[in-house]
Amino acid sequence: MTPLELFALICVFAVVRLLMTFLPGAFATNSALPAPADVSAAAGASTVSPSIGLAPAAVAPRTQTAGEGGAVASPSLSSVVKEYLDAFIVAGLVALFLITFVVRTFFIPSGSMEPTLQIHDVLLVNEFEYRLSKPHDGDIVVFPPPLPEPNDFIKRLIGSPGEKLRVHDGIVYRNDKALVEPYIAQKPVYELEVKNYGVYVDGTPLDPEMANIPPRSMWQAPDRIPAGCYFMMGDNRNNSEDSHIWGFAQTGSTFASGPQKGKKASFTGHAFLLFWPPNRFGILH
Question: How large is the average pLDDT for residues 75-102?
Answer without folding.
Answer: 73
